[in-house]
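Severity: low
Component: inverse-folding endpoint
Summary: output formatting inconsistent between runs
Steps to reproduce: submit the following structure tokens with default settings.
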């Protein structure tokens, strides 16, 4: 048997794409609420366009998400039926602290998640909780400038202390920041950053990153103080960069890209800034605002496990060597890999790259890995019998689960679990579309917000159920 017997099979979601109920239960407004669907989304999530309020000209998909807020019992029952061992959700910070800087939490928000966690346990599902998934109170952006401001560390501390205290015994697995490296690529989503004209954007991003890294270590410390059973993970958007060719200049370009991502985990898992980053920041004249005690805090409070998302590998080349075109892929830019096929959204598909990425991470940190996002975003259509036969999704998952099995069985990698992205269809983070679906469960809603929000099972529902039942031994699928 390759998968450990307590392997955590499940699925993953995020409040801003899933939960909705944006103005209910005393909730405040968050950065992700005001991110619209459409062509302005990208300049907004990258911090190039300032857009901190709703307006009449845009449609805002996060307001309703797919209404987990009202339908959590139905959803959790469906996941229970599939045999889920774990379910990853994130906390909407604004449900707990509507503005972010209050001293007392909002009881209605705390109660909501308590109900959700209890419902999961009723179905034998262990919660996996992301504390911040592209999510922060808009007030903290308007008043403090987001994570560029050190004060936000104190507000985050207040949030995590509240969560760890209230959910002691209900939640064991935590992730401090979703895809922390996304701060470099989508800084408004990742850290509430909006850039002023002429400012050194890279410097602002690294200052904000330092604050998040300090906050993450602080959360780890508090989590253990409150309950030593707590397990804390860091989380990156992973995907190994390959060199475009064996030209050492391309190999070096790929190494630099990889280090750019691993930087965050190096700090969170090894407990200190790696030398390559210190040197690079120094050359660029970027000063990290270390305060007294930061170094010790980072060193003494490293994470228990390494979690990550994996959708694709990437390709890098030295600027003089670039051949071919860029391809889409989880907000990062990458050169197109001619050896790979791609999804309808141009994300390239590379199951062996998944095994390569797991090996890189495990060799580097030697801590258990937790795959907390993986999956295929695709358009789904009902056939004449009213079914969705999503063999393309099953095929993607089969190949990736097989790669994970190889990593465990043949490479000896320790793995805690695997949660597919968007187990129930939800809003896409990069495009704001509903048409880009990942789920085993279809949700009746379109890109413009029409639809009943009703849930229905896709073919992959029964397939994943069997995968879980056999602990990953039976991945077979009868096509059609
Ligand atoms: C990751 C995010 C998720 C998610 C996923 C798929 O970056 O952590 O929030 O949405 O990617 O991306 P998309 O929704 O753009 O297809």
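Observed output (run 2 of 3):
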């Amino acid at each position: 048997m390759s998968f450990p017997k307590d392997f955590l099979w499940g699925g993953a979601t995020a409040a801003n794409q899933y939960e909705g109920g944006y103005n209910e239960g005393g909730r405040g407004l968050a950065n992700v609420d005001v991110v619209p669907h459409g062509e302005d989304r990208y300049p907004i999530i990258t911090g190039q366009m300032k857009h901190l309020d709703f307006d009449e000209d845009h449609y805002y998909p996060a307001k309703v998400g797919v209404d987990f807020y009202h339908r959590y019992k139905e959803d959790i029952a469906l996941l229970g039926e599939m045999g889920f061992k774990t379910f990853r959700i994130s906390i909407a910070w604004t449900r707990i602290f509507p503005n972010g800087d209050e001293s007392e939490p909002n009881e209605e928000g705390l109660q909501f998640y308590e109900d959700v966690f209890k419902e999961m346990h009723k179905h034998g599902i262990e919660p996996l909780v992301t504390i911040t998934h592209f999510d922060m109170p808009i007030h903290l952006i308007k008043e403090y400038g987001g994570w560029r401001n050190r004060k936000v560390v104190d507000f985050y501390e207040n949030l995590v202390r509240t969560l760890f205290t209230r959910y002691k015994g209900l939640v064991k697995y935590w992730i401090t920041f979703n895809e922390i490296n996304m701060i470099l690529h989508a800084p408004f989503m990742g850290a509430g950053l909006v850039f002023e004209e002429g400012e050194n954007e890279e410097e602002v991003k690294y200052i904000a990153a330092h604050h998040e890294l300090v906050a993450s270590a602080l959360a780890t410390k508090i989590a253990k103080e409150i309950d030593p059973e707590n397990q804390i993970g860091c989380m990156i958007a992973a995907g190994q960069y390959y060199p475009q060719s064996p030209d050492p200049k391309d190999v070096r370009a790929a190494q630099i890209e990889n280090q750019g991502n691993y930087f965050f985990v190096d700090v969170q898992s090894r407990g200190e800034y790696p030398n390559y980053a210190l040197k690079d920041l120094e050359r660029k004249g970027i000063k990290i605002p270390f305060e007294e005690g930061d170094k010790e805090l980072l060193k003494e409070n490293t994470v228990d496990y390494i979690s990550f998302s994996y959708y694709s590998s990437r390709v890098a080349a030295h600027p003089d060597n670039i051949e071919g075109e860029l391809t889409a892929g989880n907000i990062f830019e990458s050169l197109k890999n001619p050896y790979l096929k791609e999804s309808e959204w141009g994300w390239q598909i590379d199951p062996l790259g998944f095994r390569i990425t797991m090996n890189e991470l495990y060799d580097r940190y030697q801590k258990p890995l937790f795959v907390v996002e993986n999956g295929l975003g695709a358009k789904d259509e009902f056939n004449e019998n009213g079914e969705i036969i999503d063999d393309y999704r099953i095929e993607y998952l089969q190949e990736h689960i097989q790669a994970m099995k190889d990593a465990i069985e043949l490479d000896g990698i320790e793995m805690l679990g695997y949660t597919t992205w968007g187990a129930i269809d939800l809003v896409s983070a990069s495009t704001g579309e509903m048409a880009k679906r990942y789920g085993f469960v279809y949700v009746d809603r379109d890109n413009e917000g029409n639809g009943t929000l009703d849930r229905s099972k896709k073919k992959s529902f029964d397939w994943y159920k069997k995968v879980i039942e056999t602990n990953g031994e039976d991945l077979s699928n009868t096509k059609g």
